[in-house]
Amino acid sequence: MDELMTKDPVPLRRAALGDLPGTIARPDYDAAHLSPGIVHIGVGNFHRAHQAWYLHRLMQQGLARDWAIVGAGVRPDDAAMRDRLRAQDCLTTLIELGPDHSKAEVCGSMIDFLPVEPDNAALIAQMADPAIRIVSLTVTEGGYFVNPATGAFDPGHPDIAHDAANPATPRTAFGAIVAALRLRRDAGAGPFTVQSCDNLRGNGAITRDAVVGLARLGDPDLGDWIAAHCTFPNSMVDCIVPATGPAEIAAVRALGVDDAAPVTHENFRQWVIEDAFCAGRPDWDKVGATFSDNVHDYETMKIRILNAGHQVLANAGELLGVATIADCMAHPQIRPFWRRVEQDEIVPHVVPVPDMAPADYADLIETRFANPNIRDTTRRVAFDGSSRHAGFVLPVLREALAADAPVDGIALVEALWARMCAGTREDGSKIAANDPHWDALRAAAVAARDTPASWLAQTSIYGDLGQAPRFADAFDRWLRMIWDQGTAAALEAYARS
């Protein structure tokens, strides 16, 4: 390491892969011998540490070299990622951080990144190419135009209405997909698979509803063609991947690589996929993925125990000024709170999957969350609570109420979120906007300080749950205690109850 620090880091380029330090694994395949088969929309850290890595491992075995990834984005801020990645030939340094080890490798399964354009013309043209057989997405849980209270596709969203009225110049990923499928149908080029890789229960079904629903708004016949010929496999994806900041840039430079977009990740990955691919697929199972007809149970276990568990931690951590998820797990009040909510109020509503009982999975997640080398910020995990609470936490609450099971801890989780959305920590410091609907959330949170029911009156999030007396009464009690006595007092009271 000392020797590396005395040298300039090697710029990450395909032509310079041979100059990288010997401790860093790198592709042994030539990009000139790769051809595209996948367009991926939403090239963030998770995609590069997860789906792109699985494909990279296949390519390292001499397989799937006609399935290379072409990256894409539909948001203006995706252009900055495109610039960074194209400047380094779309390579990424992945740094695995275990509790007691680290290692690095360069992933090369992406070969291009399309221009980011308001009308998505380049994206539509690429997806219309018959060589593209899969279009995959990581566009966040809130990017599927789902009404959080009903779980159904929202055809009234302004961006969906725009795309239905302007099918040749769409704003959204789904509008671009529909436009490309129209071109393919008309040219006789055949369908492609649309594969969601986001943390949504039934992500394939949700994606199908968005694509088919949007198509039918403007062209019912096209919608019927897509429904009949395209496939939308459900999947469960899992790997903790923090955001990249100055510390990660410095870490990769210390390893001897000049990478403008490195990714750190934990030493765990899982990918369970429904085998429903209308135009073929890579053999991801040869590098550790699982094809299963039982994706629903896998994704329910993961979304409830891990993703809902993240929300149990993050809002308490924000209020108490605890910087990372690992720090939350080291906190004397937050970790016991997390463990009890998981054991008493989440695990009972999860069924086993092959080789894993829910309680054992919760133990695994506890170990993963506590990894001190994964600096996953509470702010990142708390982002977009309006989607994450609605998608991860509230389905558990609804089942618990129906089963007359305990809900006191989940009510406290929701009260902590309401208190966080008031916009200040308990030390008086400001919590910056952290949700697409922050202004509305903050207004509801401020009103709820005196009238807790004001928070539950957000039917776009809670639906009729705010009318359930056991939950509403517990929420009222916890939120008043948090405002009057503080977060720590509420956590301790729950521990004693």
Describe the 3D structure:
The chain is of the alpha/beta class and 497 residues long. The protein has two domains: 2-293, NAD(P)-binding Rossmann-like Domain (Rossmann fold, 3-Layer(aba) Sandwich); 296-496, N-(1-d-carboxylethyl)-l-norvaline Dehydrogenase, domain 2. Helix content is 46%, strand content 11%. It is built from 22 helices and 14 strands. The strands form four sheets. A five-stranded parallel β-sheet has the order 7-4-3-8-9, sandwiched between helices. It has a four-stranded mixed β-sheet with strand order 2-6-5-12. A hairpin with a 4-residue loop joins β5 and β6 (102-107). The chain is globular and about 65 Å long.
Short description:
It holds the Pfam family Mannitol_dh_C. This protein has 497 residues and is of the alpha/beta class. The protein has helices at residues 2-5, 45-49, 51-60, 78-86, 121-128, 158-165, 173-187, 203-218, 220-229, 246-254, 295-319, 325-329, 334-346, 358-369, 378-382, 385-402, 408-420, 438-448, 453-456, 459-462, 469-485, 487-496, and strands spanning 10-11, 24-25, 36-41, 68-72, 92-97, 102-107, 110-113, 134-137, 193-196, 235-238, 257-258, 263-266, 270-273, 290-291.
